[in-house]
Amino acid sequence: MDDKVGMLGMVSLNATNYTTWKTRMEDILYVKDLYEPILRENIPSGVVAKEWEILNRKVVGTIIQFLDLSVLQHSANEHNAVKLWKKLIDMHEHLP
């Protein structure tokens, strides 16, 4: 699958566009079959730990590509996809 699939028109997350960014990011993760690590913290049964670690890092890398520097400075040290996702929710869902 082309690496650019689903990324056309993607915006970087900032303080004003969380709803749009989240919708588009979820779509990208689903299209690229990278969604599972944002849904569960533990390795699913039947999945090899190393494969899960690689998938997790792909998700983190994909998300981080689309964070504005003002957001990235609060998230750059997070290398767990579900924790990063929850951190972004906590940072932005309460904002108007």
Amino- and carboxy-terminal Cα gap: 36 Å
Principal-axes shape call: globular
Strand content of the residues, in percent?
under 5%
Total strand segments: 0
- Counted by DSSP, the helix tally is 5
What is the domain tally?
1
Mean pLDDT: 89
Secondary structural class? mainly alpha
What Rg, in angstroms, do the CA atoms define? 13 Å
The percent of residues in helical segments reads 40-55%
Profile the largest sheet: none
* Secondary-structure element series: HHHHH
Low-confidence stretches: 1-5
Descriptive labels:
96 residues; mainly alpha; 5 helices; globular; disordered N terminus
Structure description:
The protein contains five helices and no strands. Helices cover 53% and strands 0% of the residues. It is globular and about 40 Å long. The chain is an all-alpha fold. The protein has helices at residues 18-31, 36-39, 49-65, 69-72, 81-92. The chain has one domain (18-92).
